[in-house]
Design brief:
With 739 residues, this protein is α/β, with parallel strands linked by helices. Helices cover 31% and strands 18% of the residues. It is built from 24 helices and 26 strands. The strands form seven sheets. It has a six-stranded mixed sheet with strand order 11-16-15-14-12-13, with helices on both faces. α19 packs across α23. 51% of the residues are buried.
């Protein structure tokens, strides 16, 4: 407390701030005292790859730049000890402007939650927000001010490795999740348990051609506004502090210098008051794009377009001052970028106390908070999707005497974290619950668990099959845990082949010959092509990568202590040849109906439908939909329709159901999707219980962007569909929008 008072006095004497001044007044007062070099320094972000302990190893030049106030932010600095050391360097600068510390806290800090795509499968906005809140609490307690999340890119191509980092293919679901995650990360910005969110990647990164990371994006502005921009707007509406440029070009203009995206939309039409940071080196990479000839031109293009902070390309640091002297960059542009960054530093409270996030006691407390572990287990359980359970093998009986637990994913720990996990404790993985440990924790000594690896994830050898078959022969049931390694999905992890790697599928075929019931667990960061498995194996559980509580959560689902409720946020293709595949596509002049392929929009060698559709997921119970009612069958623009429906749990156990409402605008001035998610509710029902739920359809839900990019509705007929997935519509009705 004494240190905080002393620092406040120091800042007051340097900047002559008063308690009555607003943040903007304080920013203006500070800006007037800054040299051009110091201003440009605030736009400069460097990384540190130091270990979490020991002396700072960053080179002396960078240390000196921090001391001179020529670096505004650092990333990849972790822990209160390390962040304090760097902040102390910044406090040696003339104006003592604090550093911002950013980190990729994507799905947890120490406590790791499921990968974001798995979280999206929960369709549980409250739990998703809680996961982000826990991540923010732990990160902030470790000295972090800023996370480079959430990623809100709509992704329809599972070849793109970064699908694991987003919320899937649907704009409506993606927008709701974007809002929830920003609220979770930021809380009340400035509190010691909150971090700034960074919404990425602006924009349309998920539509990379061929599913190749960093690739070009080519689309109409109408598609951009209707499909890809809404999650960004939802995140902004939630109060997102920062945005990050995408690596791609959009219709020929790299995002880092895309005036239309940054000036016209984000800072113009949307009136965004935060700041924009480049992705790693993306400003300098415009040279490779062929958009500029060197870093100097890159700096000119990016600052002009509205990119405020340069992450790791040094384009601003070494070129902006000269560009100002040449009258190519007005100082006003630099001032605007600097003010946006300083404003966030003030809002975080760093000028009152630059060390407010450097409390070792709080760090130890929050990194060992049992409530966080509980939240991670709940999120993981809700993220699991039951794809098949034809013979009711699941839930497993707790009276089983012998279980064979086989596969390359049974005992590893790090894999459960998935890609983009923060290695807080580095080599120590004791806090990660393996799938083996989860099963042991669940059955105790009453059930014998037998283990065989069978094969490695990418093995071509079948040497381990014999051991797997021997173990399987001794058990009442086989649990087979397979999939892809954690580092096969994520940034720079695009793949053309989405089948199970190695000989894993052949291992399944061998175990199938035993005649024993088999439960398949599929661990992955994206939708995989599992066509043969889906056709031939009766029990399939998609576990994604579930985080540090993966083992316990999987065991909870296997034994029925948690009834699975996950629904797919992405369509699963039958083969790579169908990609991109998504549920809310347009119709054509020759649609394939009932797989009629004669001169239709179809494949001659496979169905056009996905293997598992968007919104799909089973439960250990069943639900009956009935008594659909609309409050009126016609509505005007200023009116709304109330939709009610009864949902009954007709099974024998308590369960959760995601009730999904879809619409189809039958005729429009531009063609409309054949079906669109417009609302959903996740409800819990005891066995035999019935609930009446209501949805409201207003003009917003009926609106779209026409060919002139005007957002609004058009009079006409609408189909209304309510069901358990985009392909499992239980009830239908229609209504009319009139002038």
């Amino acid at each position: 407390m004494k240190k905080s008072i002393t620092l406040a006095f120091v800042f007051a004497s340097v900047f002559a701030f008063s308690q009555q001044q607003t943040v903007d007044q304080k920013v203006e007062a500070l800006l007037k005292q800054m040299t051009l070099e110091e201003k440009i320094g605030q736009l400069n972000q460097y990384t540190s790859n130091d270990a979490a302990t020991g002396p700072i190893t960053i080179n002396n030049n960078k240390q000196n730049e921090i001391k001179k106030g020529l670096i505004g932010s650092m990333l990849n600095v972790m822990g209160t000890k390390r962040t304090r050391q760097y902040q102390e360097l910044a406090m040696q600068s003339r104006l003592k402007i604090p550093l911002l510390f950013g980190l990729d806290v994507i799905h947890g800090y120490k406590t790791t939650f499921p990968i974001p795509l798995a979280e999206a499968a929960s369709w549980d906005l409250t739990t998703i927000e809680l996961a982000a809140r826990v991540a923010a609490t732990e990160a902030a307690a470790s000295g972090i001010h800023w996370t480079f999340a959430p990623m809100v890119d709509i992704a329809r191509d599972p070849r793109w490795g970064r699908v694991m980092e987003g919320a899937g293919e649907d704009t409506y679901l993606g927008s709701k999740i974007a809002y929830a995650r920003v609220k979770g990360f930021q809380g009340n910005l400035g509190d010691v348990n909150s971090v700034m969110a960074c919404v990425k990647h602006f924009a349309a990164y998920g539509a990379a051609v061929g599913g190749r990371d960093y690739n070009s994006v080519d689309m109409s502005n109408r598609m951009l506004w209707e499909t890809y921009l809404p999650p960004f707007k939802a995140a902004l509406d939630a109060g997102a502090a920062t945005f990050m440029n995408s690596f791609n070009d959009l219709n020929g203009i790299p995002a880092s210098a895309n005036n239309y995206l940054l000036r016209d939309i984000l800072k113009g039409k949307w009136n965004f008051q935060g700041f924009v940071v480049s992705d790693w080196g993306s400003i300098g990479e415009m040279v490779n794009h062929g958009y500029v000839k060197d870093n100097k031109e890159a700096a000119l293009a990016s600052i002009t377009a509205g990119s405020d902070m340069d992450m790791e390309s040094n384009a601003y640091r070494y070129n902006l001052e000269q560009l100002v002297k040449e009258n190519k960059v007005p100082v006003a542009l630099i001032d605007d970028a600097v003010k946006r960054i300083l404003r966030k530093k003030f809002e975080l409270g760093l000028f009152d106390d630059p060390y407010k996030f450097c409390n070792p006691e709080r760090e130890q407390k929050e990194l060992n908070n049992p409530e966080h572990t509980k939240a991670a287990r709940e999120m993981a359980s809700k993220s699991i999707v039951l794809l098949k359970n034809e013979r009711d093998v699941l839930p497993l009986s707790k009276g089983l005497k012998t279980i064979a637990f086989i596969g390359p994913m049974v005992k590893p720990k790090r894999d459960n974290h998935g890609f983009w996990a923060v290695d807080v404790k580095e080599i120590d993985s004791s806090y990660i619950v393996s799938q083996w440990e989860g099963l042991e924790n669940k059955v105790g000594k009453r059930t014998k668990i037998l283990y065989a690896k069978g094969c490695g994830v990418e093995d071509k050898s079948k040497e381990g099959f014999a051991d797997a078959l021997k173990v399987a022969s001794q058990a009442e049931v086989i649990i087979l845990s397979i999939g892809e390694n954690f580092n096969k999905s994520g940034e720079a992890k695009s793949k053309s082949n989405l089948h199970l790697p190695g000989v894993q599928e052949e291992l399944i075929k061998e175990l199938q010959k035993t005649g024993k019931p088999i439960v398949i667990l599929i661990n992955a960061g994206r939708p995989l092509v599992i066509d043969w498995i889906a056709d031939n194996m009766p029990t399939i559980v998609y576990t994604w990568w579930l985080g540090s509580e993966a083992g316990n959560a999987i065991a909870d689902v296997l034994f029925g202590d948690y009834n699975p409720s996950g629904k797919l946020p992405m369509s699963f293709p039958r083969t790579e040849g169908q990609i991109p595949i998504y549920y809310n596509h347009f119709n054509t002049g020759r649609p394939s109906i009932n797989e009629d392929k004669i001169y239709k929009s179809a494949y001659i060698d496979l169905p056009t439908t996905p293997k598992f559709p968007f919104g799909y997921g089973l439960s250990y119970t069943t639900f009956e939909y009935s008594d659909l009612k609309l409050s009126q069958k016609t509505m005007k623009n200023n009116e709304s329709i109330t939709v009610s429906v009864n949902i009954k749990n007709t099974g024998s156990v308590k369960g959760e159901e995601v009730v999904q409402l879809y619409l189809r605008d039958k005729v429009g001035s531009v063609v409309r999707p054949i079906i669109e998610l417009k609302d959903f509710q996740k409800i819990t029902l005891n066995r035999g219980e019935t609930k009446t739920i209501q949805f409201t359809i207003d003009n917003q839900k009926l609106s779209f962007y026409n060919n002139a990019l005007e957002f609004g509705s058009e009079p006409g007929d609408f189909d209304l569909m309510i069901g358990s997935s985009s392909a499992d519509i239980r009830l239908r009705d229609s209504f009319e929008l009139v002038k």
